[in-house]
Amino acid sequence: MAAIPSAVDQQSSSSSTTSALGALFSRISQTINSGLSERRHWSELADRTGFAKPESFSEANQRLRKNYGYFRTNYLMIVTTVLAVSLLTNPLSLLLLSALLAAWLFLYIFRQPSDPPIALFGRQFSDRAVLFSLILCTVVVLFLTSVGYVLVSALMVGLSVVLLHGAFRVPEDLFLDEAEPIVRVPSLLSFLAGGAAPAPQPPIASRA
Question: Could you report the per-residue pLDDT of 118-150, keeping only the tens digit for each?
């Protein structure tokens, strides 16, 4: 006979879920604030004097790499805005996507090993069964409803705007040189490896 979860267990599970949700919102808020602090002025993004047709595909690719390194936060905001507008103009898709996200958060991501199993209609479901059900619901929502079409079309529109801007925006006035990506990569790798970047060798004094 399965044990019925006590009120103390339910209260502890609710408290752990609330704390995990608060930590998630705090992390999201810190990430958004950190990203917004790196955005460029929109006047630089929309400067009409800085646009010119690229002469070749390689030049367009080079401009795109430079502009992405400089305007990446603005580009992300553009794609996010297009996605948000598309969802707001499709309330059913927004409702389905919100319900799917809430199901993933509260039925799987925020659940602790000590939480009692989920019970529905007098039957208990294991974590593996819940995960399989969530994956099945995700596939149904994304591929058998309008949610997938709305998301894909919005991402295509946003990425098209980003690609066109990155290819036609001349980056020479953005003070972005070729050496900048080369300087950042070793420092990032040394940080991940837990070591410090090698110190520069002092110049050898010339003998008199």
Answer: 888 888 888 889 999 999 999 999 998 899 999
What are the Cα distances from residue 21, in Å, to 9, 36, 66, 167?
Answer: 18, 22, 37, 40
d(CA 203, CA 135): 61
R_g (Cα) of the chain, nearest Å: 25
Strands (DSSP E) contained in 15-172 are 118-120, 123-125
Report CA-CA distances (Å) from 19 to 22, 50, 99.
5, 48, 21
124 forms bridges with which residues in the sheet? 119
> At residue 184, does pLDDT exceed 50?
no
**Distance between CA atoms of residues 126 and 115, nearest Å:** 11
d(CA 151, CA 202): 55
* Tokens coding 202: 């002092």
Q: How far apart are CA 66 and CA 162, in angstroms?
A: 13
